[in-house]
Amino acid sequence: MSFKITIEPDKKSFTAEKDETVLSAALREGIGLPYGCRNGACGNCKGKLLEGQIEYTDVPLTGITDEEKSSGYALFCQAIPRSDLSIECRQIEAVGDLVIRKLPCRVNKIEKLNHDVVRLYLKLPSSERLQFLAGQYIDILMKGNKRRSFSLANSPQDDNYLELHIRHYDGGVFSEYAFNKLREKSLLRFEGPLGSFFLREESSRPIIMIAGGTGFAPVKSIVENIQHKKLDREVHFYWGARSKADLYLHELAESWAMKMKTLRYIPVLSEPRQSDIWQGRTGLVHEAVLDDFSDLSPFEVYACGPPPMVHAVVDNFTGRGLSEEFIYSDSFEFATQTSGGK
Ligand code: FES
Fold it and tell me: Which residue range forms the structural domain that includes residue 232?
């Protein structure tokens, strides 16, 4: 049996399926209730129960006191509705609503994706989850106060592990470490979520996404978020790389285009090898967009990758009618230096 949950005072509502917690139901329907651990411990998901009955899971509820419970507060990560509910709580709608935290994590798996990119899966302590917006990044904290930024490649709903794509740079402080020393079960510390490069979900504009190299990571997070929330946005995804081997998750991007009627995937190679037998687009990735659209004024553009690519997008797209306010970018500044970030 399902129950209707209404958030006061704005009357936004969603439905909880049988034995689903209030928080899980809200996140499934794309409503950003706040949370931290999803385990009854941190209290971040606390809100007021105005009307209706709940039951708790059997997880120990250390994130709420008895006084708070008797004043009508509830932990929504563990509260299962037993009737329609009316609740009052904060909603996460923008970056400013999220809490930036420093957390430890353990490397759960290291996977080589091609000759110079590895994928890390990071596991947080069992009592923690990281709430973030699709497209944001974290800073890995290293010895000597050094930090390196990496975009999160998993979607916010798929948060059992944090996924990072690390490209190898000669002399890059973290990338050398990741390729040569990091092992499964190694401990790391990070700070996040960070950045204002995230999907504007309230917009209905068609989207052009442009990625260069590991700029694919935040695109993956955003596309999986769109899939999860069943958003009906038109997406044109251009992925620029040198040769086919650099499109390190090409089949995944192709599978999105097969599954999602609203998504087009256009890989663009700047230096295809003969062995690639490439019949697709060639040249610079931003030029492929300019070739395809004479008027960019209706679009929203997300550009993520090396600085020259991002600058070319800003410089050239505004000349095609796109207002700068609709260009969201994440420029991998570190990627051109020897530090090896993002
Ligand atoms: S999310 Fe931590 S107590 Fe609910």
Answer: 207-336
Q: Is the pLDDT of residue 313 over 80?
A: yes
Confidence of residue 43 (pLDDT cuts 50, 70, 90): confident
Expressed in angstroms and rounded, the spacing between residue 44 Cα and the centre of ligand 1 is: 5
Distance, CA 24 to ligand 1 centroid (Å)?
Answer: 11
**Shortest-distance atom of ligand 1 to CA 37:** 2
As given in the structure block, the two tokens for residue 191 are: 């700070």
Q: Which amino acid is at 67?
A: E
Which residues are 164's β-sheet partners? 120
Instruction: Please check whether residue 124 lies inside any domain of the structure.
Output: yes
C-beta separation of 263 from 256 below 8 A: yes
Q: Are residues 269 and 315 in the same domain?
A: yes
Q: Do residues 157 and 138 both lie within one domain? A: yes
Maximal C-alpha separation, the chain: 71
108 and 141 inside one domain:
yes
Out of 22, 24, 44, mutate this one to test ligand 1's pocket (max ligand atoms within 8 Å of CB): namely 44
Query: Are both 332 and 214 inside the same structural domain?
Result: yes
Please check whether residues 23 and 134 belong to one and the same domain: no
Residues 6+ apart with CB under 8 A from 297: 320, 321, 322, 323
Q: Give ligand 1 pocket residues (Cβ under 6 A).
A: 35-45, 63, 75, 77
Residues 261, 295 within the same domain: yes
Q: Which carries the bigger pLDDT value, residue 91 or residue 83? A: 83
Q: What is the pLDDT of residues 189-229, one digit of tens each?
A: 999 998 888 998 889 999 999 999 999 999 999 999 999 98
Domain-located, residue 65: yes
